[in-house]
Amino acid sequence: MRVRENPAYLSVVLLGRLITRLGTLTDVDAGVVEQLFAADLAFLQKFYEKINTDGSSLATTVCPGCTHEFDVDMGSRLGG
After folding, report:
1. Residue ranges per domain, the chain?
2. With 50 as the cut, is the pLDDT of residue 14 above it?
3. How is residue 22 annotated by DSSP?
4. Closest residue by Cα to residue 73 from 55, 63, 20
5. CA distance 1 to 72
6. C-beta separation of 77 from 57 below 8 A
7. I need a surface site. Which of 8, 16, 46, 59 has the fewest CB within 10 A?
8. Quick check: 80 pLDDT over 50?
9. Which of 73, 11, 8 is nearest to 46 (CA)?
């Protein structure tokens, strides 16, 4: 019902059904996803889109100390 009222809520519902664990939380649902900081939710949405678009779990990041850009395989931490 909430998705019909607000189509943007679909990503919250979707992530709530897909995420099985978040840190020490083992019971993740849409309510938990709603409580995330906007930047964390945006990261999860972007990561979900990346995995499903190109099948890659590589994320490009930058070292804050030396500004060296490198890739990190986020998939090695999924489900483990």
Report:
1. 2-55
2. yes
3. B
4. 55
5. 38
6. no
7. 8
8. no
9. 11
In the structure encoding, which two tokens stand for residue 47, read together?
Answer: 């990561």
How many angstroms separate the first and last alpha carbons of the chain?
34
Long-range interactions of 44-53: CB distance < 8 A, separation 24+: 44/15, 44/19, 45/11, 45/15, 47/74, 48/11, 48/14, 48/15, 48/18, 51/75
For residues 2 and 33, which has the higher predicted lDDT (pLDDT)?
Answer: 33
For 3, the token pair is 């998705």
pLDDT in tens, 23-74: 898 999 999 999 999 999 998 898 888 888 877 778 788 988 999 999 888 7
What phi, psi does 61 have (nearest 5°)? Answer: -140, 170
Q: What six digits make up the tokens of 67?
A: 């500004």
